[in-house]
């Protein structure tokens, strides 16, 4: 209850059958301190309590000047208010841990950070993260990095990535658009996109740079498949068992029809990329 003097009073029943009034008043000029006064009309007990209130992150952007210090920076803010965050600067595996444990983070932009390798299990089984922008400097995406995340929308893998390890995006069930593996990627690990469901069933593009594709690496609901490699990449015999149409470079259809694993496609046609 707000009193005429600007104090808040709370009337409460005490467990020993007595009663009293608790009055809480901000101390002036001390910051982050309240005075608690308990009175039964005859006796008054007062105590000063220091209150630590952390501000919300209003700009949604944090600059990290030294890799490994993000956790310390975040200590200055109320983490429960951080739902959208852009990070700028250099970060490392310790900073990824600091991001992973933010309880309500749903939109994360790492596009302008310096990070070459996203560690194993970076955000695996994250229940709140639905949008991610990966670093432009990224070379390797570690195994299980986004396994069983709730990612939605169009997944963009940065140009410059060379390795996508096993189960990286496995069981992400709400993606949309087309899955484009960018030029420069050499290997995609087994089950990398296994059981990853594209809501609108887009296409799959595999770059000319690809050399190795692991077993069951890609979602089975994407069609058609465009493979730009002149020489069929090494794949497991069952990697494309459930796919129907494949487009390959000019003068390469016959090579693919005779290549193990690739010959599982019902239709293989040539196209100019």
UniProtKB/TrEMBL annotation:
Segments forming a coiled coil: none
Lineage per the UniProt record: Bacteria, Pseudomonadati, Bacteroidota, Bacteroidia, Bacteroidales
Signal peptide interval: none
The protein, known as: Leucine-rich repeat domain-containing protein
Matches recorded under Pfam families: LRR_5
Biological source species: Bacteroides acidifaciens
């Amino acid at each position: 209850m707000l009193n005429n003097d600007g104090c808040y009073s709370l009337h409460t029943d005490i467990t020993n059958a007595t009663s009293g009034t608790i009055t809480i008043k901000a101390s002036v000029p001390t910051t982050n301190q309240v005075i608690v006064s308990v009175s039964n009309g005859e006796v008054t007990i007062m105590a000063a309590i220091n209150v630590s209130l952390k501000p919300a992150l209003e700009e949604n952007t944090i600059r990290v000047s030294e890799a490994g210090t993000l956790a310390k920076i975040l200590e200055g803010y109320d983490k429960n208010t951080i739902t959208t965050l852009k990070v700028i600067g250099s970060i490392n595996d310790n900073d990824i841990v600091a991001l992973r444990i933010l309880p309500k983070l749903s939109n994360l932009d790492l596009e302008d950070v310096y990070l070459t390798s996203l560690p194993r299990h970076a955000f695996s089984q994250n229940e709140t993260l639905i949008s991610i922008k990966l670093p432009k400097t990224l070379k390797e995406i570690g195994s299980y990095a986004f396994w069983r995340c709730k990612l939605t929308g169009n997944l963009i893998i940065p140009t410059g990535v060379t390795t996508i390890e096993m189960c990286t995006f496995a069981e992400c069930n709400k993606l949309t658009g087309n899955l484009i593996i960018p030029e420069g990627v050499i290997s995609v690990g087994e089950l990398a996109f296994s059981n990853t469901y594209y809501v609108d069933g887009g296409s799959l593009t595999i770059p000319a740079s690809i050399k190795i594709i692991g077993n069951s690496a890609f979602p089975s609901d994407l069609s058609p498949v465009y493979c730009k490699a002149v020489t069929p990449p090494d794949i497991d015999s069952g990697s494309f068992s459930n796919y129907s149409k494949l487009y390959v470079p000019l003068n390469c259809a016959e090579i693919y029809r005779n290549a193990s694993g690739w010959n599982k496609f019902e239709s293989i046609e040539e196209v100019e990329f």
